Amino acid sequence: MEGKNSYIISSGSQSESAESEITIYENPVYLAVKRCFDIVFSLLCIIVFTIPILFVMLLIVIDSPGASPIYIQYRVGKNGRVFKFYKLRSMVPEADQMLDSLLDQNEMEGPAFKISNDPRITRVGRVIRRTCIDELPQLWNILKGDMSFVGPRPPLPREVEQYNDFQRNRLSVVPGLTCYWQIQPNRNSLTFDKWLELDLKYIEERNVKNDLMIIFKTVGAVLNMEGV
Predict the structure, then answer these.
(1) Which end of the chain is more exposed for a tag (fewer CB within 10 A), N or C?
(2) What is the pLDDT of residues 101-141, one digit of tens each?
(3) Residues 132, 60, 121, 225, Cα dihedral to 10°
(4) What does the alpha-carbon distance between residue 202 and residue 215 come to, in Å, rounded to a whole number?
(5) How far is CA 120 from CA 7, 71, 158, 161, 169, in A?
């Protein structure tokens, strides 16, 4: 038997007032299969990638002396739950303090922050970001259940503080390592509203077939060193 939740979904940009209520069915079989896949595959990946992760951590220590090679951030997950989010360090240690001085250069409208040629990124960071190696520690988040392999990317608390009710629908499911936005060929030029639209599309349509499709396309993007 399927459970269901209702969310308010807007059919246009956040500035439009027209809204409609849709019902998202949470199939318990799908959720169980998804969680089992997350546990088994994250364990396998942790075993396979432990040595490469340790090697990259050594490079980070050499490139950024005194800084921890693992960067811990707080992110917002399902239903607004805050959790510790792990990445390999790709920015200088004072990156968070530098953010305020860069906000006026933000290239993305809305709560998210993105700029080209971010001056906070280190030499090693540019390589591991392009190859997505910096995201590997999130395998631990997936194993713990904070995240899934597929789902909307978890936002920062400061971003969620700027969300309206419509945008908070991104938080209605477990966040993921990759989703529809990450596999778009023109993703770097997409607006936040389009990113949100893709996340809500995933939430409404999610099933095993779509999850596998997103994973395979993400692997292709990573192998092409497109970054995700």
Answers:
(1) N
(2) 888 787 777 787 878 788 899 999 999 998 999 999 999 99
(3) -20
(4) 13
(5) 37, 14, 19, 24, 31
Q: Give the pLDDT confidence of 52-81 residue by residue, as tens digits.
A: 999 999 999 999 998 999 999 999 999 999
Angle between helices 208-223 and 192-205 (to 10 degrees): 140
- Give SS3 for 123: helix
Between CA 65 and CA 63 the distance in angstroms is 6
86: its two tokens: 């792990």
Q: What is the DSSP letter of 151?
A: S
Q: Is the pTM of this model over 0.70?
A: yes
> Which tokens hold the place of 33?
């299969």
The pair of structure tokens assigned to 166 is 């419509």
Q: What is the DSSP letter of 112?
A: -
